[in-house]
DNA sequence: TTAAAACTATATAGTAGCTATAAGGTCAAT
DNA sequence: ATTGACCTTATAGCTACTATATAGTTTTAA
């Protein structure tokens, strides 16, 4: 299996595969005589794993960490669960921050309507005057 | 007022101020004979405006756009409001996406406890097997 | 058979918004 | 005279790719 086929089967760009290889997330595959990379089923699974992790919002560093656990299958999986717990709290704090931001933006937006000149715009005035509530 | 004082008064790094200047968000200030930048009150207001916009999550491009409106104060402020509306929907869709992600992560986490080996870890299995629900 | 299309390779730069580092010039105080 | 705090520019680093340039290889079609 060459890089293009692997890419298509997982739904990523060939560049991304080479990028993961350089980052140490995918093991360097064997090469044909002409230098083309040759991939196996294992590579496909590894790549799919990376992609699913990315969809879950994990960073490449976190994925690397998960891979290191996979390489040591008889350890307790405490660290895996802890990584996920950390990620969940990270996502939750992002949600909280964005909800606060949304409130702030909505209240700013309410301070204007479309029938004014820029000079009298409530939105711009609100930002300029800095009457922004914390967090 | 020199760059260090401006930076301290607004609470940013001096590097950030030079960066905004290069990006065209802050007008190039006058220089002393020795080349040091000299800032006025206006620069302070401009910088504070940028920072408040950043806190609201606006991109530098959006800030640039707002500044272009400020330079034309007798236009109607429709575009300002539209920019904010767009930003609000952007924030809302981020929230929605993160909430879906949180659900997914929590359900993944529920598939394991700490008393297993990595080999049997429900979390890793969940990711590897790809039984991930869309969005 | 040959020429074009489609694939592969590497290296490099760009994206966003800074932050950090290096290497140097300036200024006030000791 | 030298230390320290400030200023200058230029450059690289961060994340996770994506795009571009340039070149070699394979496959397909005429």
From TrEMBL, chains A, B:
SUPFAM superfamilies per the UniProt record, alphabetical: Putative DNA-binding domain (SSF46955)
HTH merR-type domain span: 1-69
Highest taxon, organism lineage: Bacteria
Residues spanning the signal sequence: none
Record keywords, A-Z: DNA-binding
Pfam families: MerR_1
InterPro entries xref list: CadR-PbrR, DNA-bd_dom_put_sf, MerR-type_HTH_dom, MerR_fam
PANTHER family according to UniProt: HTH-TYPE TRANSCRIPTIONAL REGULATOR ZNTR, REDOX-CYCLING DRUG-SENSING TRANSCRIPTIONAL ACTIVATOR SOXR
Name of the featured protein: Cd(II)/Pb(II)-responsive transcriptional regulator
């Amino acid at each position: 299996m060459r890089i293009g086929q692997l890419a298509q089967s997982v739904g990523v760009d060939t560049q991304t595969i080479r990028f993961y290889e350089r980052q140490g997330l995918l093991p360097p595959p064997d090469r044909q005589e002409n230098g083309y990379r040759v991939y196996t089923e294992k590579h496909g699974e590894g790549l799919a794993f990376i992609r699913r992790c990315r969809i879950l919002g994990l960073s490449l560093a976190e994925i690397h960490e998960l891979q290191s656990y996979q390489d040591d299958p008889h350890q307790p999986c405490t660290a895996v669960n802890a990584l996920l717990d950390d990620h969940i709290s990270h996502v939750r704090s992002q949600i909280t921050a964005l909800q606060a931001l949304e409130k702030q933006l909505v209240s700013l937006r309410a301070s204007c309507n479309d029938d004014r000149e820029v000079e009298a715009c409530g939105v711009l005035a609100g930002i300029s005057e800095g009457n922004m509530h914390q967090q």
